[in-house]
């Protein structure tokens, strides 16, 4: 499947919508945590790791090599490497806002990159991943929504870079909305012409 990462995002979004039948998407529920939210949270952030690596490798191979070499002790790229590369090559990345219109929730998931910091939801994901007994409560509704918005931004850049993002009614996000016009570092498209083939 050519757009497997997009369809995977849509399946994650569907899980969040299903969870919302039991946990209302509302700021008063942001600290609510559960096994279902944990599963989705881990899936989202694992996928972000995959997409960020793809984005960095495919957009500017020469710069990617330079950035990786500036972190000689890291056998595999991680968020610090991605952050350095993205801040250099895609300065608009950190300012993209994703909305949840039905609940009037705006999210700018990567805004901490502007301060050379990791997103709070990313650091909390790592605690859930490695020290779940101690940090299980971090797998909450807020972090799931923010990480899902973060994944969507990553996909917009990846598919925008490939100039291969087409969307129609059946395969566009149902919960999250993307900007009406998307222009970031020479990646430009409008949802009206964005269709991902089925």
Description:
This protein has 198 residues and is mainly alpha-helical. 49% of the residues lie in helices and 6% in strands. It has helices at residues 4-19, 35-59, 61-69, 79-89, 120-130, 132-135, 141-161; strands at residues 98-100, 105-107, 182-184, 187-189. The strands form 2 sheets. Strands 1-2 form a two-stranded antiparallel sheet. A two-stranded antiparallel ribbon has the order 3-4. Strand 3 and strand 4 (187-189) form a beta hairpin. The relative contact order is 0.18.
SSE arrangement:
Layout lengths: L3 H16 L15 H25 L1 H9 L9 H11 L8 E3 L4 E3 L12 H11 L1 H4 L5 H21 L20 E3 L2 E3 L9
Antiparallel strand pairs: 1-2, 3-4
Helix pairs in contact: 1-2, 1-7, 2-4, 2-5, 2-7, 3-4, 5-7
Number of beta-strand segments: 4
Strand content: 5-15%
Structural class: mainly alpha
Q: H/E series, N to C?
A: HHHHEEHHHEE
Main beta-sheet strand count, sense and barrel state: 2 strands, antiparallel
**Helix content percent band:** 40-55%
Strand order of the largest sheet: 1-2
Mean pLDDT, all residues: 86
| End-to-end distance | 9 Å
Unreliable spans are: 191-198
Large-scale geometry: globular
Q: Total helix count? A: 7
Global Rg: 16 Å
How is this structure best summarized?
This protein is 49% helix and 6% strand.
Tags for this model:
mainly alpha, 7 helices, 198 residues, disordered C terminus, 49% helix, two-stranded antiparallel sheet
